[in-house]
Specification:
The chain is mainly β. It starts with 14 loop residues before the first strand and ends with a strand. Strand 1 and strand 2 form a beta hairpin. It contains no helices and 10 strands. Helices cover 0% and strands 50% of the residues.
Length: 131
């Protein structure tokens, strides 16, 4: 039967998306409070907050979506502030790598499941408010 096993710490407003890493060791959450939280998954399962963004930096509006790269080295966040931000993850530490201004609210993001065959680079798809 279905039953709750844990409540995730870290957000003060609505969580808009959750994504498990491909290795099942982490859970990423994004929220209306303009932050992301990275949770480590341990036995039980139990979730412990290992990293989070500050609501006063990076995204200035609701974060609608998030996605992990196929190798879990990166994740992206997309927001109503028209930005897609790329984050690197290494040894529990998260750093902002780059950001794109998309010109309209970003409503969805997703990494391709493998590197591009043409350029051997990561590929990210984005959905925008204007289509």
């Amino acid at each position: 039967s279905w039953q709750p096993i844990a409540k995730l710490p870290g957000h003060s407003l609505t969580v808009t998306q959750l994504r498990f890493s491909h290795d099942s060791k982490s859970l990423l959450s994004v929220s209306r409070d303009r932050t992301w939280c990275l949770h480590k998954i341990s036995a039980g399962p139990c979730f412990s907050l290992t990293a989070s963004s500050d609501s006063r930096s990076k995204h200035s509006r609701i974060i609608w979506g998030c996605s992990w790269s196929h190798d879990d080295k990166y994740f992206v966040t997309g927001s109503r502030d028209k930005k897609v931000i790329l984050w690197s993850v290494a040894d529990g530490s998260v750093e902002m790598c780059d950001q794109l201004d998309m010109g309209d609210s970003v409503t969805a993001v997703d990494f391709a499941p493998m590197l591009s065959a043409v350029s051997s680079s990561y590929v990210v798809a984005m959905g925008l408010d204007n289509g």
